[in-house]
Amino acid sequence: AAAIALGVALGAGDGQAAPPPPIEVRANPPGATPARPLDCTITSLAKDARGVYLLHARCPEGKSLAVGARGTILDAQGSPLRDGAVVVEQVKPSAIVAETALKKPVKATTVRFYVRW
C-alpha cells in the first residue's frame, strides 16, 4: 500500500514506478588525463637477501606514487636503461622503495614514472 501511495505521489497514476531518465550519450566524451613524467632522485641501490636490487628514491614534495607503479631508471643522458625497469614496493612519506630488474649496480641518479594527476 505504501508503494502504491509513493507511486501516486511521484506522478505514476496507475501505481507503477516512473521510467528511469534516458541515458546521456555524448558525441565527444571527455578524454583521459594525460600521463606526466615524475622524476625521482635515487638515494641508494643495494641488493637484498633475495639477490634483487632495491632502489630507494626521493620524489618531489606533494607527489605520491602507488604501490605497484612502474617506472624506468634513466642514464646520465636521460635515456632509459635496457634492464632499468622498476616496480614500487613501498611508499614512505618522504621516499619510495622499488624493486629493479638490474643484474649489476649502475651509477644512475634518476628514476622516471609516468603518473596521472
Question: What would your notes on this structure say?
Answer:
The chain has one helix at about 1-10; strands at about 35-45, 55-60, 70-75, 80-90, 95-100, 110-115. The protein contains one helix and six strands. The two termini are about 50 Å apart. The longest helix is centred in the first third of the chain and has 9 residues, at about 1-10. The model has no long low-confidence stretch (mean pLDDT about 85). It has about 120 residues and is mainly β. The radius of gyration is 26 Å and the shape is elongated. The protein has a six-stranded antiparallel barrel.
Please tag this protein with its features.
mainly beta; elongated; 117 residues
Helix-strand sequence: HEEEEEE
Structural class: mainly beta
Major β-sheet annotation: 6 strands, antiparallel, barrel
Kindly report the spatial arrangement of strands forming the biggest sheet.
Answer: 1-2-5-4-3-6
Q: Tell me roughly what share of residues is in helical segments.
A: under 10%
Tally the beta strands.
6
**Poorly predicted runs of 5 or more residues:** none
Report the radius of gyration as a whole number of Å. 26 Å
Beta-strand percent range: 35-45%
User: Overall pLDDT, averaged?
Assistant: 85
Number of H- or I-type helical stretches? 1
Shape: elongated
